[in-house]
Amino acid sequence: MSRKEAATGFPVSYSYSTTSETCYAPPAKPIVEWSSGLCDCFSDCGNCCITCWCPCVTFGRVAEIVDKGSTACGTSGALYTLICCVIGCCCLYSCFYRSKMRRQYALKGSACTDCFIHCCCEPCALSQEYRELQTRGFDMILGWHGNVEQRSRGVAMVATAPSVEQGMTR
Q1: Closest CA to 141 of 81, 73, 41
Q2: Where are the transmembrane segments (predicted)?
Q3: Are the C-beta atoms of 126 and 66 separated by less than 8 Å?
Q4: pLDDT digits over 141-150, tens only?
Q5: What is the largest CA-CA distance in the chain?
Q6: How far apart, in Å, do the first and last CA atoms of the chain sit?
């Protein structure tokens, strides 16, 4: 049986046998707790009110950050609203984003608990996700591209004009 090294330099076995051959993989991120509790909604009254009265806004903002800008806030929010109006159960859609966010940031939980939390208390789940992303340094109102632009401006990007010589000389 041959072992090859992946682009990461870790040896990987391409065999699917049930022998005791070891497959090496990079170490997994340690699982961490959420930065705030599920019922800490009232620590941010503004977001709490928006989430209670118009959860599509909070969902859209969370989805844009979790998708890393590949889906716009408005698009995600509109799809959330459409699913809610047609099917009546938007929690089935939003729980997938909770699971995706949990995997990205190695947060404690499972797919079953994600679904259960969203089905039982959608506003609390969305508010917790929103607070988690804020704690991780995202300005939720700016969206993904606004956050990327803001962070890139702070990194050694000095706008200076090149020097120009005056007149022609020979």
Answers
A1: 73
A2: 77-96
A3: no
A4: 999 999 999 9
A5: 80
A6: 72
Residues 65 and 136: beta-carbon distance below 8 Å: no
pTM: 0.73
Listed in order, strand segments (DSSP E) in the chain are 3-5, 11-13
- What average pLDDT does range 129-138 have in this prediction? 95
Q: Is 72 exposed, middle or buried (0-12, 13-18, 19+ CB in 10 A)?
A: middle
Q: What one-character DSSP code corresponds to residue 34?
A: -
Q: Cβ contacts of residue 168 below 8 Å, gap of 6+?
A: none
Asked if 141 and 50 touch (Cβ cutoff 8 Å), the reply is: no
CA–CA distance, 132 with 97 (Å, rounded to integer): 13
**Rounded Cα gap, residues 147 and 139, in angstroms:** 7
pLDDT at position 21: 47
Which residue is listed with tokens 């009265």? Answer: 53
Structure confidence by residue, pLDDT tens digits, 43-67: 788 888 999 999 999 999 999 999 9
